[in-house]
Amino acid sequence: MTTIRLLLVDDDPLVRAGLALMLGGADDIEIVGEGADGDQVPELVDRLAPDVVLMDIRMPGTDGLTATERLRARPGAPEVVVLTTFHADEQVLRALRAGAAGFVLKDTPPAEIVAAVRRVAAGDPVLSPAVTRQLMSHVSTTAGPTGSPQEPNRRTRAAARLALLADREREVAVAVGEGRSNAEIAAALYMSVPTVKTHVSRILAKLDLNNRVQIALLVHDADLLDGPDGR
Question: Is the model's pTM score more than 0.85?
Fold first, then answer.
């Protein structure tokens, strides 16, 4: 069994203690360190070499969003799961755009937080297709009025990036944006699940993205979905 090295970052010592107690009980998770501010993250990561960072979004010093953006911009960065009290807000979306593999609510049952850490360590995003669809809907309702200056610029940039993909890769990317699982994509596009996985890997590499959540956000930004849930 491979041990997952986990770093906890939260300004509340009681929250950190609770998380350490909860996660430290898993046989395959080792709490290698704790931080109370985003400013501490680079030094802690360099010294402790965690596989996953569980990061609070709201901290009084350097917040978890800024810390996540800085960390994920570094080569060989550990995966990041953000902690939040809100299910889908602009801060969560910003963290996902920065490369966080997902988020968990602070009141999530312990077993689900443990499962989330394991999934991220294995290279899978925390967000299910259903949650991805919910985030897409949230983006739609918070992106501002149609025709705002930011909207066409973001759409143009997203479309230009997606133009780098081959036709089949683009079809897979749109299906990811619709919140479909690999099995659902395989059935819809008449290909095998391993082939879908290969296409997703190529998309990530070509577009320099971290995970399929970022693919979904990019597809939405390019306005390639029929509706908030893509169905």
Answer: no
